[in-house]
C-alpha cells in the first residue's frame, strides 16, 4: 500500500531536518514546501504537526514553523529519555539477539576501535548508531521501540554527532560496548543489561554536559538486583 500524502510529506521533511539540509531556525513555509513536495498544504501541515510533537519543529508568533534550535536543556532531556527507554529496549531485546547479530555488533565495535587513532567523528557516529540499533532493534515491545526511534531522530536533528564535541568520549564508549556485549553473550539478567545500557548513554550525556560547563545528569542508572 502506497504511503499517504501526509506520510510522504512527513518522511521527506524529517529526512531533510535530520540530515541537516534544513538547519535549526530554517522557516518551514507551507506553500513553498507544498510546491516542493508537489502536494497541497494540508498534508504538509499534518506532517509539521507530527514533527512538532517529536520536538523537531517549533512554532513562534509572527514567524510560524521553524526547525528547532539546539540547546543544552533539550539535549539533556532527550538523552535522559533515551537512556531510560533504550536501556529498557535493550534489556527486552536481549533474549532475542542471536549469535549472528552479536557477532555483527562485535565487528562494528572493532571498526569503531579502528577509527580512534585517526578519529573520524562522522564515521564513528554512523557505526555507533548501527551498533545500538542491532541491540535494541530486537525489542518485542513496539511502543518502546517507537519511542526509542523518535529519540534517535530528535538527536540526529539536534546534533549530527556528539563525538565532535567530546571526541575523548569515543574510546570509553568502545570499551563500554565490549562490556555490554559480554553481558549479552553471557545471558546476564535483564536488570544488568538495562543498567549497563542506561549507564552507557548517561556517560555520553555527562561527557557533553561537562564540556559545556554544566553539572551532570541527576538521573543515574539503576543498580542491578542481586539474588
Description:
This protein has 227 residues and is mostly helical. 64% of the residues lie in helices and 4% in strands. It contains nine helices and two strands. It has helices at 5-19, 30-37, 41-53, 72-93, 99-114, 121-136, 142-158, 169-185, 190-211; strands spanning 57-60, 64-67. The protein has a two-stranded antiparallel ribbon with strand order 1-2. Helix 1 (5-19) crosses helix 7 (142-158), helix 4 runs antiparallel to helix 7 and helix 5 runs antiparallel to helix 6 (121-136). The protein is globular and about 55 Å long. The termini are far apart. The model has no long low-confidence stretch (mean pLDDT 89).
Number of helices in the DSSP assignment = 9
Along the chain, the helix and strand elements come as: HHHEEHHHHHH
| Mean pLDDT across every amino acid position | 89
Helix residue percentage: 55-70%
Q: What structural class results from the helix and strand content?
A: mainly alpha
The fraction of residues assigned to DSSP E strands is: under 5%
Output the radius of gyration: 19 Å
Query: What's the count of strands?
Result: 2
Throw out a few tags for this protein:
227 residues, mainly alpha, two-stranded antiparallel ribbon, 9 helices, 4% strand, globular
In short:
Helix content is 64%, strand content 4%. It is mainly alpha-helical.
Amino acid at each position: 500500500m502506497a504511503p499517504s500524502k501526509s506520510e510522504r510529506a512527513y518522511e521527506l521533511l524529517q529526512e531533510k531536518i535530520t540530515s541537516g539540509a534544513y538547519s535549526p531556525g530554517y522557516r518551514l513555509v507551507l506553500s513553498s514546501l507544498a510546491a516542493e513536495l508537489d502536494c497541497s498544504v494540508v498534508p504538509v501541515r499534518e506532517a509539521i504537526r507530527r514533527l512538532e510533537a517529536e520536538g523537531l519543529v517549533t512554532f513562534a508568533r509572527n514567524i510560524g514553523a521553524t526547525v528547532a534550535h539546539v540547546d543544552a536543556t533539550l539535549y539533556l532531556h532527550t538523552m535522559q529519555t533515551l537512556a531510560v527507554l533504550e536501556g529498557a529496549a535493550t534489556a527486552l531485546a536481549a533474549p532475542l539477539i542471536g549469535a549472528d547479530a552479536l557477532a555483527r555488533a562485535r565487528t562494528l565495535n572493532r571498526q569503531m576501535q579502528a577509527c580512534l587513532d585517526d578519529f573520524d567523528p562522522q564515521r564513528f557516529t554512523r557505526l555507533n548508531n548501527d551498533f545500538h540499533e542491532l541491540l535494541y532493534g530486537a525489542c518485542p515491545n513496539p511502543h518502546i521501540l517507537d519511542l526509542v526511534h523518535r529519540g534517535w531522530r530528535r538527536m540526529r536533528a539536534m546534533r549530527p554527532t556528539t563525538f565532535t564535541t567530546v571526541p575523548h568520549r569515543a574510546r570509553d564508549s568502545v570499551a563500554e560496548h565490549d562490556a555490554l556485549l559480554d553481558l549479552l553473550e553471557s545471558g546476564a539478567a535483564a536488570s544488568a543489561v538495562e543498567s549497563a545500557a542506561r549507564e552507557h548513554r548517561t556517560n555520553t550525556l555527562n561527557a557533553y554536559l561537562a564540556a559545556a560547563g554544566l553539572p551532570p545528569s541527576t538521573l543515574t542508572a539503576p543498580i542491578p538486583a542481586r539474588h
